[in-house]
Amino acid sequence: MRFYVDYDQGDEIRCWVVPDNPLAISRVFVAVEGRRVAEVAASITDDGIRANGWHSTGQCVFRLTPEEVPGLAEAGRVEIYDTDTNVLIYRRSRREGLRTGKVLFVDTSINPETRLPAVLFDWFQQSYLGVGRLSDEVLRVLFESPWLSSSLITGSIIVPRYEGFFASDNFLTTALVHDPYVEMATRMLWLKARTALAVDPAQAWRFGRLAEAADFAGDYDYDDVKSLKRFFRMMPESAYRLLYNPLARQFGTKLPDDRLTPGNSIVAIEILARVGIVGHRAFYEAFCTTVFDRLGIEAAVPEPEPIPETVLALAARLRGLRVAQDMLVFDVAMADAVHGAVAKGWTV
After folding, report:
1. What whole-number distance in Å separates Cα of residue 142 and Cα of residue 48?
2. In sequence order, which residues have a C-beta less than 8 Å from that of residue 156 and are 6 or more positions away?
3. What DSSP assignment string belongs to 249-282?
4. Alpha-carbon span 241 to 256, nearest angstrom
5. In Å, what is the CA distance from 294 to each residue of 9, 153, 164, 287, 290?
6. Domain extents in the chain
7. Helices 180-193 and 309-319 meet at what angle, rounded to 10?
8. What is the pLDDT of residues 54-72, one digit of tens each?
9. CATH classification number, 1-94, choose in 2.60.40, 2.40.360, 1.10.8, 1.10.10
């Protein structure tokens, strides 16, 4: 899917949305002041869209007026979403103090950071959360479109694949690094918590290749060291890819299935060093404070999400396992470097 907003003149908004199905007619729904008021089909044909091979007819353009969207002209908040994917196409916001530019928060944990984005949400005209689930085409629209001049983007993405879009002075990249053993424990418990769904034929499709890993995790007792060692010895490839140096994979490869080598770990460190603001979960307040300062935002620093005792206990057991140590060599080196750099200027 591709999309673009030509203009918002108050009583008229013009945009286009190219659906994934080149034979389909685009549809959007519009919310005014938080209330869904209309669903509209594209009514204008763009020969350029058809000539580019993006759509069979080019019927992808919307001209929204008060006739299609009651209350459009006087509304302070208007949101347009693609009907099929629920992706935000455009948000009108007349809130004062909106920040310009794009801010990307790279989620490095399987459990996404929610508290900091929740604070930042209202400071940007458009916010896209959890973008790791979006298609490559949509991500490229979010990163490269100049009309998205005030946007917050968060999610787990493979950074080298898109780093070329981040070179602009108006694009701030941020990342929060987690303790590798805590993250491994979090991922293992994440798999176990989804075992029941993974074995349900009606639900397994939601997890893709990780369904096998979640099913596998259900057979092991993480509290038992022998069972834990057997888990690492017998794990399927999908579990291995989820647990093996995930931070180095995220910053050092371009595709999910790329083989991770020592060379990739060097690339990962170099790319991480080019991120605008890098923090460590142990210095959460320092990270948030730095982000607020860079953006010129005065706001209370949120409390970090508590780490469950079960995660900390499993992480402690993993630290003593040689097989877990071997699987996190690259990530430990990266996390220690970040921790050491942040610790020089901040105290916990």
Report:
1. 21
2. 106, 107, 108, 110, 112, 132, 250
3. HHHH-SSTTPPP-HHHHHHHHHHHHTSSEEEEGG
4. 9
5. 31, 16, 22, 11, 6
6. 1-94, 96-348
7. 120
8. 999 999 999 999 999 999 9
9. 2.60.40
> What is the structure's pLDDT at 348?
60
User: Comparing C-alpha atoms, which of 288, 275, 249 is closest to residue 113?
Assistant: 288
Cα separation of 45 and 61, whole Å?
Answer: 6
What percent of the residues of the chain are helix, what percent strand, and what percent coil, each to the nearest 5? Answer: 45, 20, 35
Give pTM, 2 decimals: 0.92
213, 238 contact by CB (below 8 A): yes
Give SS3 for 149: coil
> What is the 3 state secondary structure string of 54-112?
CCCCCEEEEEECCCCCCCCCCCCEEEEEECCCCCEEEEEECCCCCCCEEEEEECCCCCC
Beta strands at 88-93 and 77-82: parallel, antiparallel or unpaired? antiparallel
pLDDT surpassing 90 at residue 155: yes
User: For the CA atoms of 73, 45, 136, 152, what is the dihedral angle to 10 degrees?
Assistant: -10
| For residue 250, pLDDT beyond 90 | yes
What residues contact residue 328 under an 8 Å CB cut-off, 6+ apart? Answer: 180, 181, 184, 245
Task: Please determine, looking at this structure, whether the domain spanning 96-348 carries the CATH number 3.40.50.
Answer: yes
Residues in Cβ contact with 115 at an 8 Å cutoff, skipping those fewer than 6 apart: 302, 303, 304, 305
Contact 240, 248 (CB under 8 A): no
